[in-house]
Design goal:
single chain, 365 residues, alpha/beta, Dehydroquinate synthase-like, alpha domain, 2 domains, 6-stranded parallel β-sheet, globular
């Protein structure tokens, strides 16, 4: 039985990274780590464009001669990119994949690895979300996308995480704010999970919940230090994000890290896609959702808002560059995003209740 699991039955499987290394110049240890884990032969490296592609280029230089390496730029971060990675991996008969970048390249790597049934390693270039060490992706797959991808069941955590703080320190300040926002979200995500356990008898892991909350606490204890360019604060943020990812692996789902606040963010993404708009960074949207969901849950939402401000994270739609009417609309649609019970219940919020919530917490004025 999974450690701390309540209402679980039968055997449970925990997928977590086998090797995690972080610190200055960790990238130079990649070849050594891959060999120790049996990741040899042919590899496809997946990165974004510009800066992440440069890091991928450095990595290729370190690995070439020791193994066959191909590089795919997943610039759009969508299903088409995942399919290109899958095709290239099949063409070269890749033994494993390596994701280099922030959120999208790592998510694409996870999807492709699951489809191919191969292992993968990740080299994060920013500390923007907890997907660094988890088997979860940060966007919802539509039914059409699932049909195009085919089998992506059983996504696993990366076999190795190589987090070079020297590289991560160079990421834009917005990525640190996003990572902090994603961590603060654990306060509402765990409360939603507890609610689902009590009302719907959903399996619940005290160990995973505690680890997730610990990650959030580590971040909030150092809120004023979360600034780009400071190696020690980067270490703190990366540690906390990895801890959250491991909590997901222990739980066997994203429950300890993703609740109503993430559903709100996913709803915003869907609305932006429909209207041709640009959403805010994932962690920033999640942060706004956390403030509002904490209010609904009866938590100290003002303390959460203040910690976000301390870390420089936007706490209003205006600061995040989001239209107030879209925030309200996302609140009314969030409960439909996935089949997951949260504080939003089954029917969600009415437009009037959604606007009152957003105004009461100052998210819209």
């Amino acid at each position: 039985m999974r450690d701390g699991l309540i209402s679980g039955k039968g055997l449970e499987k925990i997928e977590s990274p086998r090797y995690i290394i972080f610190g200055p110049n960790a990238l130079t240890k990649t070849a050594e780590i891959l060999h120790s884990l049996g990741l040899t032969g042919r590899a496809v490296i997946v990165s974004g464009a510009s800066v992440t592609a440069e890091v991928a280029g450095d990595l290729i230089g370190m690995l070439e001669g020791d193994m066959v390496v191909r590089h795919v730029v997943a610039d759009g971060g969508g299903i088409d990119d995942a399919l290109r990675v899958i095709r290239e991996a099949k063409n070269v008969e890749a033994d494993f994949l390596i994701g280099v970048g922030g959120g999208k390249p790592l998510d694409i790597t996870k999807l492709a690895a699951a489809n191919l049934g191969v292992r993968y390693a990740v080299v994060p270039t920013s500390a923007s979300h907890d997907g660094i060490a988890s088997p979860a992706i940060n966007f919802s797959l539509s039914k059409q996308a699932q049909e195009r991808l085919g089998s992506v069941g059983g996504m696993e955590a990366p076999t190795a995480v190589v987090a070079d703080t020297r590289i991560i320190n160079r990421a834009p300040p917005e990525t640190f704010k996003s990572g902090f926002g994603d961590l603060v979200a654990k306060f509402t995500a765990v409360r939603d999970w507890e609610l689902a356990h009590k009302l719907k008898d959903e399996p619940y892991s005290e160990y995973a919940a505690s680890m997730s909350l610990l990650s959030a606490k580590i971040a909030t204890d150092h809120a004023s230090e979360i600034k780009s360019g400071l190696e020690e604060s980067t270490r703190i943020l990366v540690k906390a994000l990895i801890g959250s990812g491991v909590a997901i692996s222990i739980a066997g789902s994203s429950r300890p890290a993703s609740g109503s606040e993430h559903m709100f963010s996913h709803a915003l993404d869907a609305i932006a896609a429909e209207e041709g708009g640009k959403p805010a960074p994932h962690g920033v949207q999640v942060a706004l959702g956390t403030i509002m969901m904490a209010y609904l849950q009866g938590q100290d939402w003002k303390w959460i808002r203040d910690k976000l401000r301390e870390a420089g994270v936007p706490t209003t739609a205006e600061e995040a560059g989001l239209r107030p009417d879209l925030v309200v609309k996302a609140l009314t649609l969030a409960h439909r995003i996935r089949n997951r019970y949260t504080i939003l219940g089954v029917t969600g919020l009415t437009p009037t209740a959604a606007e009152k919530l957003a105004r009461a917490t100052g998210v819209i004025r």
